[in-house]
User: Which sequence fits this backbone?
């Protein structure tokens, strides 16, 4: 088994943080996305979409999509549960993971990809107006999330889950996207400090 | 238990098709999205994001996000498996479900929401250039999917899964988005006929 990894990009990092939280170590093969190596033969052979990460199993089976790779490890190593335990909890974690993905990470990515000069060859065409349109939507999500975090320590409840991973990485992604997190969102910033202080955050 | 339902919109329909495939019947409360009823008190009380569908359990717990609601029923009623059986199969189905969502349904929705006159109050601001930018991306996905379907009857493999539901609904959504499915994509159109001929497709 090995993981074709994409370094600092959000999706590869989601899987690495997940594995660190699980205490799972697997061989990692770094792919230099800034050198466009993900468009090369090694990745394309296993993922025609040329995206990372890709998990390659011993029999050659390739799994892509960060959350699907996480699901694989969650099923094989259920402890500690990062995707919920029991029907309702699994559904609730998935709800929050999806909310963090569709209403936060995706929006921050839209801001970044459609405006940052380094993305000009990645996002074609770059549409500055679309980047700008996503900025207030990110802010709206952050304000809502700040309210939600008044009642509990982690995004999906009492326990750290994959929803916290997605949200932490989205907030980290605000910096290159040149999105500021307002200082008055104290609950959100407290939570952010809490998840960033975990050893997994440096994975 | 009851499901706050949103009629013909893609996400509410995903849950109804899923339930039909499972043979599960639950009370459904229709919410008229064209009359903007999802912005009203009933929905907002259970989902501050004002989106549908929302599953309300007997104790008042609300679950949102169509795939998370599907997960809840999959866990309670694993047969027939629509989200995979076993670690690898679950991961593979999730990979395909996400690919169909991020590389197909989301792109079709982008085309529709940023161009259709009926969406002018929903998607603010509407950016026609962004709609247009998504059109060739949809086509690229359809061509890729046509190739994939040369080797197997359903999106994720030998069995009908939630990935087929997402993809079928994305293809249905091409019509209001004014996206044509090229007639030469024979494997894709065969598959489309196959999934549309199932009783669940009318749910």
Assistant:
């Amino acid at each position: 088994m090995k993981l074709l990894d994409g370094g600092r990009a959000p999706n590869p990092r989601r899987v690495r943080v997940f594995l660190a939280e699980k205490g799972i170590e697997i061989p990692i093969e770094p792919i230099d996305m800034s050198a466009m190596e993900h468009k090369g033969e090694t990745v394309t052979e296993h993922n025609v979409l040329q995206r990372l990460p890709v998990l390659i199993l011993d029999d050659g089976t390739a799994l892509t999509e960060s959350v699907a790779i996480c699901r694989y490890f969650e099923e094989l190593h259920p402890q500690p549960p990062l995707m919920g335990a029991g029907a309702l909890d699994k559904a609730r974690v998935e709800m929050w993971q999806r909310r963090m993905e569709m209403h936060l990470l995706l929006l921050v990515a839209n801001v970044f990809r459609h405006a940052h000069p380094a993305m000009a060859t990645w996002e074609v065409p770059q549409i500055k107006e679309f980047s700008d349109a996503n900025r207030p939507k990110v802010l709206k999500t952050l304000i809502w999330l700040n309210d939600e975090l008044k009642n509990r320590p982690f995004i999906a409840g009492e326990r750290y889950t994959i929803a916290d991973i997605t949200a932490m990485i989205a907030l980290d992604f605000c910096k290159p996207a040149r999105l500021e997190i307002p200082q008055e969102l104290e609950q959100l910033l407290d939570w952010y400090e809490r998840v960033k202080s975990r050893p997994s955050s440096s994975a």
About this structure: The domain at 87-197 of chain B is CATH 1.20.1050.10 (Glutathione S-transferase Yfyf (Class Pi); Chain A, domain 2). Chain B touches chain A at residues 48-49, 57, 61, 63-65, 67-69, 71-72, 75-76, 86-88, 90-92, 94-95, 98-99, 103, 125, 127, 129-130, 133, 144 (CB under 8 Å).
